[in-house]
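Lab channel / #folding
Pinned by the channel admin:
"Please post every new chain as: sequence first, then the structure tokens as a reply. Keep commentary short and put observations after the output so the thread stays searchable."

First post following the new format, from NK:
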Amino acid sequence: MIRMSVLPFMLMLSFLCMPAGQAKAFSLLPLKPLSYSSSAPQDYYEDAEGKTGKALKQALHDAIDDHTQLTYSQVWDALKTTDEDPANPNNVLLLYSGDSRSKNESGGSTGDWNREHVWAKSHGEFGTSKGPGTDLHHIRPSDVQVNSARGNLDFDEGGAEYRDAPGNYYDGDSWEPNSRVKGDVARMIFYMDVRYEGDDGYPNLGNERQDEQRL
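Reply from TO:
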């Protein structure tokens, strides 16, 4: 699966965003090598080694800021590969509900799946042009109605369970994703914050104050 190629980056992000008191403990854990498919060269993250805080974030940003870009229409076919159901190659797995649905049932009607921007477009004003609006690292298949219910709600805990996607909760200003995908959602948000910093014509999706508090 294409998404598996970002695992080393996600591990670094987890370390970057971890409270200082826990970072040392994390470095002592006997991590076992993970088996995954990746086309990244062995020295891809070489410039990030040994760095922490802002320097680490900048090194990661520099490493990932030239990814292959797609048009918004190309995202449809890409999702059929990145989110293919391992148990049924004719289907994709939907992010929040976990349902397996035919690849052909994509569109905007009830019962279809569409393209969910985990980092809501309105939280960066980036639309669907190339860049954050078509970046597969945060776009996932979602049931049309579930996608509409999540809208641009921030991720948080609590609320009423959403009946069409059990395990997901929402209220007037927040959406809590199913525990099955909370880690995925968090890593996508981490990625977007690091990738888009306003230095290449795309919007800065983070801000310095938040960075200072996190680092």
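NK: Residues 1-12, 14-36, 211-215 have pLDDT under 50 and may be disordered.
TO: also worth noting, The radius of gyration is 18 Å.
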